[in-house]
Amino acid sequence: MAEDAVKEQIYTIPLRSIKELPRYRRADKAMTLIRNYLTKHMKVESKQVKLHTTINEKVWERGMQKPPSFIRVRAAKFEDGVVEAELA
Fold first, then answer.
1. CATH code where residue 39 lies
2. InterPro entries annotated for this entry (predicted)?
3. Are 75 and 13 in contact, with CB atoms under 8 Å apart?
4. Structural domain boundaries, residue 25
């Protein structure tokens, strides 16, 4: 992360609720849940959340049908309101 971050936080994001969805939607919905979680907790709009490719690779690691139950993410909020998140 960059050194000029205003707020930096590590979050453990629960993804258990996606197990209730059909198998073919789980990984896509997991990415949406991660973005929505960071939007809510960092108090920004969803279009200002930038997810690093490592998060995407971790969610899709075991395929579309078996995403992880939780994921740890390091998020940094910058002065211009942009949030960058990477795998912790």
1. 3.10.440.10
2. Ribosomal_eL31, Ribosomal_eL31_dom_sf
3. no
4. 10-71
